[in-house]
Amino acid sequence: MPKALCLISLVVAALLFILFAADFGMSMAGMDDVAPFQGASMMMDIAFLILSITLGVLSWMTFREQV
After folding, report:
1. pTM of the model
2. Which domain holds residue 24?
């Protein structure tokens, strides 16, 4: 069960990273109307990108300890 939770958190981290990277990239390119959150906050995008990377690293390290 712990391995499954680690893998689920890795998937969640990847999905969050893709979502906020798309919002950040589209808002930087001037496509605010198509961005997932319409480029609401640049700081929010950067913070969630950092947090999703952190979640992915922590999940990966925990997964490796359980193998």
Report:
1. 0.88
2. 2-66
